[in-house]
Amino acid sequence: MRKLHFFVMITIVYTMIMSCSNCREIQGIKISELLNRQIDDLYCDTLDKAIKLDKEAIIKISTYKISDAAGYDHGYVLISLIEKIGEQEYLKAIENLSLEEKSSIESYLWVGMEYGGNKIYEYKKLNEVLPLLAKSLKK
Length: 139
Hints:
This protein has a two-stranded antiparallel ribbon with strand order 1-2. The protein has 9 helices and 2 strands; from the N terminus they run H-E-E-H-H-H-H-H-H-H-H. The protein is globular and about 70 Å long. By secondary structure, it is an all-alpha fold. The chain starts with a helix and ends with a helix.
């Protein structure tokens, strides 16, 4: 009986842990623990839809307000999203955003490239990696 009670408790704890709003990876894009602490339940679902080229989801994921060091990780997520869907598709989705929103995206992308952990982008400028997007974010 004691073993059954222990098994039931372990099952309940495991279920609670696994059903938390945390997500660790969406279609190959890693979501850091730090970012997980700041995002809501919809972030991962929105990212999944954005990867599937849902324009509204691309806009929403791009305009999330993430503070402190988690912003670096959000920048990495945006860079990874652009890698997956392509610069042109991303541009089409965000073309009508305000200059303020585009400036925010540019900041996230810059820190995502510089500190996101992808050595390919480290020490490179946005206009070297994503020239069309860099130009569009200035308009």
